[in-house]
Amino acid sequence: MGRAVACLVGLALAAATSTGLAAEPAPSAATEPTIEPPPRGKKYVQFGVAFTVEGVVSPGPVCAVAADPCILGSGGGISARVGWRPTENVYFGGAYEFSKQDPGRLYRLGILQQARAELREYIPTGHSIAPFVLAGLGLAAYGDEWGIDTWGPAATLGVGVEIELSGRSLIGISLAYRPIYLHAFEDSSTLSHDAGIAHLLGLELALEAQDAL
User: Fold this and answer.
1) Could you list the residue range(s) of the whole structural domain that residue 126 is in?
2) Can you give the pTM of this predicted structure?
3) How far apart are CA 159 and CA 121, in angstroms?
4) Between the chain's N and C termini, which has fewer beta carbons within 10 Å?
5) What is the CATH number of the domain that holds 172?
6) Which is more confidently placed, 36 or 99?
7) What is the mean pLDDT of residues 194-203?
8) pLDDT grade, residue 3 (50/70/90)?
9) How confident is the model at residue 168, as a pLDDT?
10) Nearest-5° angle of CA 192, CA 195, CA 199?
11) pLDDT for 14
12) Which residues contact 154 (CB under 8 A, 6 or more apart)?
């Protein structure tokens, strides 16, 4: 009898021990934390207007050395642009600009028109202000009272800075060098002007906005 009781107690202890071991969860292999990739930046349509100053550094052959007055002098105007910003650091767009230049009394109203494609490369700073470099290619035309007496290819190369305001509004300022090749022409006073490159400096104050795509 005593031996039977001892056997029963031994079986019970063995069963309890095996049950406790089964209840313990098996150790799981160590897993390294996953790192989520940074969210991709949104794409934007960017558009706006700007006040411009077109300073003539050298009019080139369009004004003879001894010509006084010169038909192409400095002036100012307005530009409008729209473009695509696929990332925070790049802008592709187009711009149309017209400016009233000083025609030296040879025109009633000397108007310089420019249409150009533009590229900006922004330098990220982690703040609401971002400097950029810009480049552009296009066409320019010049004449009296919106007429076209001469025209030619134009380029743009410059630098600027953009400040982000609230609500995706932006304000920017830029300074650009613009060489413009103008074909030979004869103005309304029958004075002849030779073909050549005019050298301008453009100063621009822009107000722009962004719409997410």
Assistant:
1) 44-212
2) 0.78
3) 10
4) N
5) 2.40.160.20
6) 99
7) 97
8) low
9) 87
10) 115
11) 53
12) 114, 116, 137, 138, 139, 140, 178, 179, 180, 181
Beta-strand pair 150-164/192-193: unpaired
What is the sign of the dihedral through the CA atoms of 190, 195, 197 and 203? Answer: positive
Position 100 scores a pLDDT of: 97
Tokens of 68: 């006084």
Q: With respect to residue 140, please indicate whether it lies within any of the assigned structural domains.
A: yes
Burial (CB < 10 A; 0-12, 13-18, 19+), residue 126, is: exposed
Q: Is residue 70 part of a domain?
A: yes
Task: Flag whether 199 is in a domain.
Answer: yes
Residue at 4 is within a domain: no
The confidence score (pLDDT) of residue 159 equals 98
Q: In Å, what is the CA distance from 145 to each residue of 107, 112, 124, 142?
A: 8, 10, 43, 9
Domain count, the chain: 1
Six token digits for residue 82:
């729209």
Flag whether pLDDT at 21 surpasses 80.
no
CA 183 to centroid of chain Cα atoms: 31
